[in-house]
Amino acid sequence: MPESTTIRWEQNGDGVVTLVLDDPSQSANTMNAAFSASLEAVVDRLDAERDTIRGIVITSAKKTFFAGGDLRDLIRATPEHAEQAFEAGMRVKRQLRRLETLGKPVVAAINGAALGGGYEIALACHHRIALDAPGSKIGLPEVTLGLLPGGGGVVRTVRLLGIADALLKVLLQGTQYSPKRALDAGLIHEVAATPEEMLAAARAFIDSHPESVQPWDAKGYRIPGGTPSDRKFAANLPAFPANLTKQLNGAPYPAPRNILAAAVEGAQVDFDTAQVIEARYFTELVIGRTSKNMIQAFFFDMQAVNAGRSRPESVEARTVRKVAVLGAGMMGAGIAYSCARAGIDVVLKDVSLEAAARGKAHSARLLDKAVAKGRTTPEERAALLGRITPAADPAALAGSDAVIEAVFEDPQLKHTVFQEIQDIVAPDALLCSNTSTLPITLLAEGVKRAEDFVGLHFFSPVDKMPLVEIIKGERTGDEALARAFDLVRQIRKTPIVVNDSRGFFTSRVIGQFINEGVAMVGEGADPASVEQAAAQAGYPAKVLSLMDELTLTLPRKIRNESRRAVEEAGGVWPEHPAEAVIDRVIDEFGRTGRSGGAGFYDYADDGRRIRLWPGLREHFAKEGAGVPFEDMKERMLFAEALDAVRCLEENVITSVADANIGSILGIGFPAWTGGVLQYINGYEGGLPGFVSRARELQAAYGDRFAPPKLLIDKAARGETFLDVTGA
Ligand code: NAI
C-alpha cells in the first residue's frame, strides 16, 4: 500500500475488515489523489485476501465521515485539464465499482456528515447506517456548487430511487438530509443512536448477508419507475426538461441541465456506460466558469466570512444569554424567533402587552408549520416558545446582555426607546439597531455608550434570510463589533461588516439593480422583456415586480432625504433616469406598488398579481426605441457590480468575500456569478474585458457605467478581486 495512505485497514481475525477513512494530512477526508491511490490499493488487497474476508465496514476517524471532492483542486481545473479531470473521476468510479461487486457485504457506518463524495462512497456499499449525531447531514449538494456528483452519485441514485425521485429528492436541489429524513427518503437503511449500536448493526448485516449484491446488479433488476424506453415513462419524460427550463427561467446554470442529461441518458444504458456518461458531464462542468464562481463564493468566501476575517481579532468571544428585542412588528417578531431558536432567552417588548404577544404569535405560527412538516417536535416547539417573554414594561429587560431595536423607522422614536432602557439592561449590554436607512453614527448620539452601539441589519423574512449586515458607526468600538459578529454567528446567520454610509452596502447596491430596470422602461423598452432579462441574468426576483414589493414611495422617500443631505453638504445629486419614471407612475397614475393595489403590475383585490400594467407600454414605449436584450441583462449586472467596486473604493466595505456573500445572500445577485465582485473576475476577458464593456455601456447609456479608478488600476496591474484563495 502507498505510504501516504488515507484509508486504514483494521482486522480482528473474525473475517470483518474495517476500512477507516483517516487522511493524516488534513482535518477532513477528501477525494484527493492520495485517497484514490489508497482506495485502489485497498480494493486490490480485499480482492487478494477475499477467501479470508467475510465482510467490510467503511467508517471514518474524523468528525465528518467524508467531505467530498477537494475543492482546492476542483477550482483549478481549466479546459486544459479536461482529460485529467475525466480520468481522475473514472479512477475512483472503477474502484467503487470493484468494491460493490466483490461478492462480499460492504456496510457504510456513517459516523458524521456524508455529503457529496461521502455519500457516493456510501452508495457503493450494500448497506448504509447513519449515526444520529448533530451535524450529520446526508446528500449530494454538488449542484449548489455548479457541479454534479461525479463519483457514481448520479448513476446510483437513479438506480436506487428511479429517475424522478433521484432528480427531485437528491440531485437537482442538492438537499441535505438529517439521518432520520434520509431514512424516510430511502437514502439510507438504518439510523443508529450510538457508535456502538452502529457497529453492531453493521456486523449483524454482514452476518445475515454473506453474499451481498447491489439491487442494480441483481437478476431481473429494473430501474424503479421505469426508463425512457418504457412507453408509459416516455410519455411523462418531456415534462422534465420543460419544468427545468421553467424553473431556471433561462438563467445560465449549466449543472441542472447536465444532471438531467446524465440521469436520463445513463438510465438507458448499462452501469459502466452510465458511469462514463456521468464522467463526461461532470468534466464539462468542472472545467467551466460557473462551478469556479460558485465554489469561490460558497466555499472560499463563505469560509473567510465565517472565520471572521472582518471581526476584530483581539476581542474574546462571548455568548449572549438574554436579548431584549424592542418592537414586536414584522422584523422584531422574526428576530425574536431567530434568537430563541438558537437557545437565547428573549424579552420581546412593544408598546402594549397585546402588541408584544402578537409578535410572539409569529413564532408560534412558524413552529406550527415546522411541526406539521416534521422539521421539529412539539417539545422543541414548546421549549422555543418558552424562551420568548412578551413585555410592555421596560423593567422586564433587566439583565439583558444585548438589545436589538426594531421599532418604527423614526430617529426620534429610536432615541426615546434607547433612553428608556439603557439603564435597565446589563451595564455593558451590546446596543444594536435594525434600522434600514438611518445613519448608525447619528443614532449612537442618543445613547450614553456610543462605543457599544452598532447596526444589525436583518433581512425580511428574518427566519429565512441568512444574512445580517453589521454596520460600524464612527464611534462603534472593536469590542461591540466583535460581539455583534459573535451574536450573528450564535443565531446561525452569516455576518458581513459594513462601514456606516447611506444605504449601507446591500440596499445601496440593490438600488442600482432596481433603478436600471426602471430606467429601461423609461427609455421605451418593452417591460415584459425587462422582466425576462432579469430572469435570464439569473436574478431570483424580476426587477419590476421587486420594485412593486418594496413600494415605489419608499425609494422616493429615501432618495429625497439623501438628495437633501447631499445638497446641504454643497454637493450635486447624481440624477438617475429611473427617478422621473417612478415619479410619473406615482404622481400621474397614482400607482405605488403592491401594497397600494397597483404599481408596475395590476393586482386583484386579494393581492394576487394579474399582469404587467398595460399603461407602461402605452405611456412609456417609444417608437423605434428598444434596448438590445444582451444589454438589458448586462446593464443590471454591471450597475450592481460597478457600485460594489465604488463601495470598496469608498471603504463602505473592506472585504471582497463580504461583498460577494452579501450580494448573493442578501440581495439576490445571481449565484452563478459567485457574487458581485467575482462576476467581474469571471467576466470574459477578465478585468480588462469588464472595463472595456463598462466603457461601451457608458457611451451608450450614461456615466453611471464609468469604470471606477480602483477597477481600472487593478485591470492595468493584472490583478483581480480574488483575494481569498489567490487561485
Ligand atoms: P413594523 O411597523 O412592523 O414594527 C414596528 C413595531 O415597533 C410595532 O409593533 C410598534 O408597535 C413598535 N413600537 C413602536 N414604538 C415602540 C416603543 N416605544 N417601544 C416598543 N415598540 C414600539 O416595522 P418593521 O418592518 O418591523 O421595521 C422595524 C425596523 O426594522 C425599522 O427600523 C425598519 O426600517 C427596519 N427594517 C425593516 C425591514 C423590512 O423589510 N420591513 C428590513 C430591515 C430593517
UniProtKB/TrEMBL annotation:
3-hydroxyacyl-CoA dehydrogenase C-terminal domain segment(s): 503-603
InterPro entries found in the cross-reference section: 3-OHacyl-CoA_DH_NAD-bd, 3HC_DH_C, 6-PGluconate_DH-like_C_sf, ClpP/crotonase-like_dom_sf, Enoyl-CoA_hydra/iso, FA_oxidation_alpha_subunit, NAD(P)-bd_dom_sf
UniProt key word Lipid metabolism: yes
Domain 3-hydroxyacyl-CoA dehydrogenase NAD binding, first and last residues per copy: 322-500
Gene3D superfamilies, per the entry: 1.10.1040.50, 2-enoyl-CoA Hydratase, Chain A, domain 1 (3.90.226.10), NAD(P)-binding Rossmann-like Domain (3.40.50.720)
Tree of life domain: Bacteria
Catalysis: reaction(s): a (3S)-3-hydroxyacyl-CoA + NAD(+) = a 3-oxoacyl-CoA + NADH + H(+)
Metabolic or biological pathway, per its Swiss-Prot or TrEMBL entry: Lipid metabolism; fatty acid beta-oxidation
Keyword tags: Fatty acid metabolism, Lipid degradation, Lipid metabolism, Lyase, Multifunctional enzyme, NAD, Oxidoreductase
Family, similarity comment: In the central section; belongs to the 3-hydroxyacyl-CoA dehydrogenase family.
Protein name: 3-hydroxyacyl-CoA dehydrogenase NAD-binding domain-containing protein
Species annotation: Streptomyces humicola
Lineage, top ranks: Bacteria, Bacillati, Actinomycetota, Actinomycetes, Kitasatosporales
